[in-house]
Description:
mainly alpha
Amino acid sequence: MVISNxxxxxxxxxxxxxxxxIVTQVFYIERGYxxxxxxxxxxxxxxxxxxxxxxERVSMTILGGICGTALYFMLPSNQYIIVSLLLLYVFFAVxxxxxxxxxxxxxxTGFVVFLFAMVxxxxxxxxxxxxxxxxxxxxxxxxxxxxxxxxxxxxSELFAGHFEKMLAALQLAFDGKLHTNQIAASQRLxxxxxxxxxxAMAISYEILFHRxxxxxxxxxxxxxxxxxxxxxxxxxxxxxLAPYLTKDDHEGIMTAxxxxxxxxECLNMRLRNQPAPPMLPAVNLTELLTKAIHAxxxxxxxxxxxxxxxxxxxxxxxxxNTRINDIYFLLGKVNxx
Length: 337
C-alpha cells in the first residue's frame, strides 16, 4: 500500500503532538503548549525542510527572545508602549513569515515577549522556558520526521526529470516544432529549475549524512543552472537563425544535437544508478567548428550573419556539453542519494 506524502505528514504531525503532550504531562511542564505548537508546525514539511526550519526557529527564538527581552527592560513600563510594540511585532511576523521564515520567527518571538508583558509580565525565566520548550518541540519534529514515515526528496529523480525536460525542449526546438511556443518552453524550464533552487537549502540538509557534501551539492545546482541557461539560449538562438543557416550548417548542428542527446541520456542513467556508456567529450563540438572553418575559411573570415549564427549555436552546444560532463563526473565520485 502506497501512502501519499500528505497522509504521511498528517500522521507525523499527530504523532509529534502525542509525544509532545506526553512529555508535557510526564515532566509537568507549565507551558507545554509551546512544545506542542512547535512540534506541530515543524512536522508539516519534508524531513529536510523540517530540519532546516527547526534550526531556524530555535536560533531565531533565541535571538528574537534576547532582543525582545532587552527592549522590554530598556523601555519604560508603559501599557501604550507595550501595545504599540506588540502590534508592530505581529505586523512583521505575519508579513515576513511567508516570504522570509527566519525574520518572521524573529518577529514572532518578539510578539510573544510583549504579549506576555501585556497580560502578566515578562522575565528571564519565561525567556529560558520559551527557548527550551521550542527546542524540545523542534527535536520531537526532527526525530518523528526522520524515523516515522520519512518524507524525503528523491534527488536523482528531481534532477533526472529536469534534464529530461531539457532534452525534450531541445528536440522539439531543433525539429522545428517549438517555434510558436518557444517562450513558454523556456519559461517552463526556468520555472522547473527555480523550484529546485527554492528547495535547495532543505535538500542540502537531507544529504548531510551521505557522501555528497554540501559543496558538491551546490556545485551540482550551479552546473544545472548553467545548463538551463544554455538550453534556453539555444532554443531562442535557433528560432531566429534557422532560416539563415546553410545545409552544411544544419548538418553540423544536428551532429551537435545528437552529441547532446547522448550525453543527457548518459547523465540520466548515472542519476538513476543504471549502467551508462561513456560520455562524448565537449571537445568533439569544438573540432566540428574547426573543421567547418578549414573547409571554407573565406566564409568564416567574412563574419557574416550566417557564420556568426552557426558559431554561436555551436558555442552554446559546447558549453552545455562541458557542464553536462562536469555533472557526470561529479556524480561518479559521490553518493548523491
